Amino acid sequence: MGAVGNVGAVSNVGAVGNVGTVSNVGAVSNVGAVGNVGAVGNMNLEKFTGLAENYAKARPGYAAEAVSFLYDELAPRGAVLADIGAGTGKLTELLARRGSTVYAVEPNADMRTKLVRLLASYPNARAVEGSAEHTTLERGSVDTVLCAQAFHWFDPEAFRAECGRILRPGGRVVILYNRDLDRANRVHEAEVIRREENIRRFFGGGMERAVFPNPRYYSREDWLAFMLSHSGSPRPASPEYAGFIDEMNAVFDWESKDGQLLRSFQTNVYYRKQDRFL
């Protein structure tokens, strides 16, 4: 496979408005209030319990160009950000490194424990126990709501209402997904189409998408960790586990070169430029 370029492509899906003003950042301790987590919509809290280690180790991050696009076009420096369904902090850390005030909202205790450890060295970022439908953040406390690789777990209507509650005037929502281009089959393509239709419906039209290459090389160990990081993968106690590992080792043997397997991910950024989200 040849080299993957660095240029991101932006596709227009509908008409969009002007970008709203982003408020100045405040102190981390003054924005979010952490309380008891309420309803989590259709998200099963335990689906990722026990997967945090593999998730943190082997799931891809997000393309550097995608993060730059986020700051250049959608959430300039100084914005207060909320990363909803933050997991182990794959996106959160990239935002924290930029100096942004970030609230990383995650309902799963196992994932959140990993998140807390990751963010310990970032005083501008904070892990919050909450869900997409009940973030526990204060009303009008953030400028941009983001969710990466998580929107499909949310109750869209409840999440939309919560975004309207916590966003300041002129705020926006940005949804990111890493698409695995090597999963070229009808089932996967149908999943992508259905997901994008749901995102478009969530935005109420006028959706745009920016696309950025995000390739990753895997060693055998990391490849197995990546495949075991998915909620539907068998756990070690499962009778299907040994066969699954054998199958994934066979895939690595077939597709790897010089001990490295290239996975061609693509970071998709979905957004709607307008003065107000709602």
Explained architecture:
- This protein has 278 residues and is of the alpha/beta class.
- The protein has a single domain (9-215, 266-271), classed as Rossmann fold (3-Layer(aba) Sandwich).
- It has 8 helices and 10 strands.
- It has an 8-stranded mixed sheet, sandwiched between helices.
- Helix 1 packs across helix 7 and helix 7 crosses helix 8.
- Residues 1-7 and 11-43 have low confidence and may be disordered.
Rg on CA atoms, Å: 19 Å
Largest pleated sheet: 8 strands, mixed
Name the CATH architecture: 3-Layer(aba) Sandwich
**Helix and strand sequence:** EHHEHEHEEHEHEEHHEE
- Give the number of domains: 1
Mean pLDDT: 83
How many strands in all? 10
- As for the CATH topology, it is Rossmann fold
What's the name of the CATH homologous superfamily? Vaccinia Virus protein VP39
Our count of helices gives 8
